[in-house]
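User: I'm putting together notes for a lab meeting next week and I want to include a structural view of one of the chains we've been expressing. I don't have a solved structure, so I'd like a prediction I can at least talk through. The sequence is below, exactly as it appears in our construct file.
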Amino acid sequence: MRRDGLPWDRRAPARQFGGDESRRRLALLRGSAPARWTCLLLLAAGAGAAEPAGWALTDQGTVAAAGATAAWSAAVATQLPGEVASWIDQGLVSAAGDVLRGSVEGLAAGSLRLRSDLAGDLALPAERVALVVLAPLPLATAQAEAQSASPGLLLANGSRTAGTVTAIDERTVAVDTGRRVLAIPRERVVAARLASSNARAAGTWVRLANGDRLVGTLAATATGAVTVEGLCGRRELPPGWLRAGGGGGERRLFLEAVPPAAASYLSVAGEAPTGAADRAADGGWVVAGGLRGERALAWRCGQEATWELDGGWQRLVALVALEDGPGAAVFRVDGDGRTLFTSQAQGARQPARPLAVPLAGVRRLRLAVLAPVEGASAGARAVWLYPTVVK
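Assistant: Thanks for the context. Below is the predicted structure for the 391-residue chain, given as structure tokens.
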């Protein structure tokens, strides 16, 4: 059983979710699924559902109530209640950060054909597609793979093949390694990375309950729906479909999107010493303090990172919390060598706390996670949810 409630078999061919299956998933999104699928409904709220309550992290670092008709671009992040799919069986991640589930029909002559659950048949230039997903992956992992610096293939056995992906059909995936063109059986390929991604760049986005993520220009309608103008053209989304979103633009910079100028990441047994993780250990969403974060820095005690700024940012805003587990941690913010903020010890079962730290004139910003008592260490990762500097 997949983590989003739908069955899958890793041994089955990658195209097992095409055709009728795509139409069934679209029926789920529209609230008109066949009776035998109703027990699997993730999208319990349909177009006529009452507007749910939620929360929004503002530019001032406060948490405000938000509903499905919220001005998504006006908040750093907005989340609404309700389940959201955590896996993608087939589909794509665009260079701009869109995520579309659907049946991958093929890649030829620089064009990718996708039968999208949401938007129907699409033909997209390969340079607009960062990652093609051909076998089940956690959504958070798929988005992280789209940020990879090198084009090529992620294989089912965990290995990678570097090169330019030139074609995908029902049987094979072709990749040019620079020495020769390899034709690899499609069932052996989990994902193919095509183009460079600017998905971490600022942009307004919404996440749907089925896991799709749309980036573009958003507007609320008189009926309470939200329209998105972007990769799929203009789409109108009923309030019951929405689960999360956020605004970008020149006034906001998401720190997890920017490589730090300096970092001290401690190696932890079984983990790579990256520190800048925005996914859980199992590859799924980061969940801390009762909140799910699609942008996060998840660190261990003793880890820190420093970013170089231009002095024009007004404040740092974020939510801080711990993933489930034992221990506690202290969050600290330094600017130009001065301590600007130190949190109280945060425990793993405490709710996430918002913070707003003034940064006027700061050019060197340092975030650190410390043990509350020297020598102690939290068993759970300390998480900065949506760490953002704003003007």
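A couple of points you could mention at the meeting. Confidence is low (pLDDT under 50) at residues 1-52, 266-275. Residues 20-30 form the longest helix (11 residues).

User: Perfect, that's what I needed.
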